Every structure is written in structure tokens, then in C-alpha cells.
Amino acid sequence: MRISTTGHPKAGISVCLYAMTLLLFAIISSCTTTKNITYFNDVADSVKWRSIEQAGYVTPVIQPDDILQVNIQTLDPSATAMLNQQSWPTGSSAQSSVNNSAVSPTNVSGYLVDKNGYVILPLLGKVSVVGKTTDQVRDEISTKAAEFYKEPVVTVRFANFKVTVLGEVAKPSTYVMPNEKITLLDAIGMAGDLTIYGKRENVLLIRDNNNKKEFIRFDLNNSNTFQSPYFYLRQGDVVYVEPSKSRVAATDSRQVRRITILTSLLTLMVVIISRINL
């Protein structure tokens, strides 16, 4: 008995080729495009100059468990050394160095703000700091120090102003920032920028606010990011960069095996139908 294949093999080949085309299109479309990895692509290449209103900066206030770096300079070197020594009892300071690289949150030196909102300074005693900015605390310490020394120079800054950057960045970690005025882009830059697999249109900011968690989404493909009131980061913020589908596909070995097997089967079907046609 002879089976007639007139017209059918070609139709079968067409169906297989169509299926393979759809498969290849799905694979290609899952890959990252230039549009997806470009920052602020709503600003056209032809634009030579553009101005956009940026969100205002709000100076952070000191909270319990913050660590302050207080430095007092006087005309008497011995007095200055005594005022700035930081070998205080456990609980009043945290030891080690401060820099703007990735460090453990405990690797910080300074004066720990206690649960009641005070720091204890040598000679000057207890100073209330909670709810105040570092500038306000600096002025208060200057007034106290002026009772003992002539024209003291005081600086106060956060010693543990840390931001955590996680996900699809080159160097995910917790970073101690060099100053208080830090933007979302500063934090991402310190983490080595997003990888090619990072979803720039869906960057998540997690913030503690009065014992509640706030979740804010950023689209780095859009220049309106600069207008967000959350563009400037606060102490303890967490930035999470979600991986794109192409990253998931690249790390999913089972999916890679399925695609390989499916492609092989389709190829085999084309070969078999072609031989039947012959």
C-alpha cells in the first residue's frame, strides 16, 4: 500500500518552518535591546540642551541608633586631642574607620545616639540630638564648647549614613556614604552601575518610615526620575534592581535544555518530511 504525500509534505515543511520562526523570534525578543539598557531614553539624541525641575533636597534628621562623627578643634592641641578621643565605654561609640566603600555596618567610628536621643561627649556631657539636623547639633556643641575654649571649630556628620544596593548591579553591598546628600544615581554608581540584565524601568526603593516600610518604583528610562521626592536617599535606604527576563532565561538551565530539545525535534521533523517528499 502506497501512501500519497502529494501536497502534504510541503504543507508540513511550511508548518515546521513557521514553528521554528516563532521559536527563534521568542528567543530573540527575550534578549535585551538597546532601548531597555539606555538611561533616560525619553531625552532624544537630537536634543542639545534641556532643563527639568529637580526634586528639592530635605536635610535628614538624627534618629536613635545613628552614629555621629563629632570633631572639635581648639587652639590648644592637647585639649583638641582629649575632646576628639573616641575610646569611650561600650554603647557610647562604635569603633573602626569610615570611608565611602562597601563595609560592614559595624565598621564605623563615632558617638552612638542612645534610645533617649542623646550622645555623651567628653567634658561637654550629654547633648540632645534626636530630631535635629547635623547643622543644628553642630551649633549647639559649638555653644557648649565655647564655655571652655575660645572660638572652637566644630564639625558634625553622620558616620553610618549607609545605603544598601542589591540585585543586578556590578557590586551589590552596603555602602557608607561620604555625605548626607546622596541621590539614587549616586548609590547605583557606587555599586558599579546596573548590569546589562538589570531592569532599568523598574528599580525598587525600600525605605523605613516611622516603623513602616515604603516601596517606591523608579523608571530610569524616564527623566521624570529627577522629579521624584524620593530621588534623594535617606539613611538605611535599600535599592533593589530586578533582573530582566533575559537574565532569568540565561540562568534557567531547564529552559535552555527545553529550547535545545524542541529545536532538535523541529529540525528532525523537517528532515523526515523532506525525505518522504523525495
Question: How are the secondary structure elements laid out?
Answer:
Layout lengths: L7 H22 L4 H4 L29 E7 L3 H8 L8 E2 L15 E3 L5 E4 L3 E4 L5 H12 L7 E6 L3 E6 L5 E4 L7 H7 L7 E12 L2 E7 L19 E6 L1 H7 L1 H25 L1
Per the CATH scheme, the topology name of the largest domain is Outer membrane lipoprotein wza fold like
Low-confidence stretches: 1-7, 87-99
Q: How many strands appear in the DSSP assignment?
A: 11
Spatial order of the strands in the main sheet? Answer: 8-7-11-9-10
In CATH, the architecture of the largest domain is Roll
**Percent in strands:** 15-25%
CATH class of the largest domain: Alpha Beta
User: Secondary-structure element order, as H and E?
Assistant: HHEHEEEEHEEEHEEEHH
Major beta sheet summary: 5 strands, mixed
Q: What global shape is seen? A: elongated
Helix content range = 25-40%
What is the count of DSSP helices, taking H or I runs of 4+ residues? 7
- Briefly note the structural class of the backbone: alpha+beta
